[in-house]
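Field notebook, page 457. I keep forgetting to write these up properly, so this time I am using the form the group agreed on. The chain and the ligand, tryptophan, are recorded exactly as supplied. Prediction of the bound pose follows.
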Amino acid sequence: MGDDVRIDPWSSSQSTDYQRIIDQFGLQQFEHGSIEQPTHLHRRGIVFAHRDFQNIGNAQRNSLPHGVLTGLMPSGQMHLGHSMVVEQVRWFQQQGADVSIAVADLESQATRGIPLSKGYEVAIEEYIRNYAALGLDPDKTQVYFQSKRAVVQRLGFQLGKRTNLSEFESIYGFGGETNLAHVQAPMVQVGDILHPQLEEYGGLRPIVVPVGVDQDPHLRLTRGLASKSNWFNVKQVNRGVLIGLSLQDDNADVFGMQANGRIDKQKVSDVFAMVDQKLTELGFSDIESIPKQGTIQVFSATTRDLHSIRMVLLSIERRLGGMGLLAPSSTYHHFAVGLTGDKMSSSSPKSTIFLNDPIEVIQKKIMKAYSGGQPTIEEHRRLGGNPETDVAYQYLMYFFEQDDSHLEEIHTSYSSGQLLAGELKQLCADKATEWMKDLKEKRDETTHLVEQFIRHD
Ligand code: TRP
């Protein structure tokens, strides 16, 4: 399979072959038709894929507890591309999610050489100030630092025993020369993603992680580790759903496995009785328990019941002393193109609009951006421009133009040759100016809230 895509979260170049990524890694297509008050990122297909989003949609519709967690690298300036995640977090928050934001100061120290004290400063000045300005609610948002939240590191460490170097080789392409910081950083990120489910951080509930697709390897790792730690396996079979006990070091006693190899039948039947009762409470009556095989089959359960069955089993696991971790959900957005037509990246200022750039700089950057227009006006009128490769159009679509019908008009008149490339850039620069002025104003108005975002550390 020589042409497989490998996603490297630390590389500055990423595949944008999104369909192939979906197919190869088994992502699900994001359907925005079924969600409430979709943002422009949803409506325009910029948020394009997910894993297990249905758990979150379900929690939103039924006002059940759920959380959103994401993270930021405090290593450079915050740019427009980063604002997409904040926009999504804001939307999740409005739909009822609690919000946790990890400042990946350990990761950026280990992988980019940023001292923790510098990471703190960058996180506040570049990121948190803009997060506040972009409309996150300080009362419902916890920003924390990886270096200061011991439980995050502990959880990563504990789950380390459920993976090994071969798995890291296959997920990340690591080999003998790999620096161990690159092994530890993902484990801390696992801790980030799973810790909101711990009792002291809100307890068992679905957690969604909105990220760029470059972060999917971490989600695959985390989801795998959560499942491997579970004391009950749940899978759909021909007839209903099959639950199996997953025997592990830390549950051998609870599941009646005695040191002498004998089985304590009473313990096994206690566990089965608990499961039985909870499934009955969920409304299932056709349950077959086979304690000897360690299985329970629920014949009438369908795909739609998987989540509630999982939740019940995880809470039983917790009562019995296990961690009871639900695999996180995730959503993925497309990357915005850089000004030069390549990737937008903090390390190349020419390709990137930073949120703290002065307005005149931004206007200049946009007027010089890569264009999808034709070389001459005559040709442009005849052949039309290409909005798909035109940076000004793309930025209107990703960031600055909220009105879908206006965007559509621009699309039509640009592709038909009516609107010239320079005119389109001017339109974009004007809209960007408005957007940036507004952001700057909000930044000034919300400066006093920054403290509140980080009060939990
Ligand atoms: N690794 C992420 C990045 O490079 C930052 C991060 C740390 C993160 N922990 C996280 C992202 C948890 C999402 C969820 O940007």
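OBSERVATIONS:
- The CA atoms of residues 339 and 369 lie 5 Å apart.
- DSSP finds 18 helices and eleven strands in the chain.
FOLLOW-UP: compare against the apo run.
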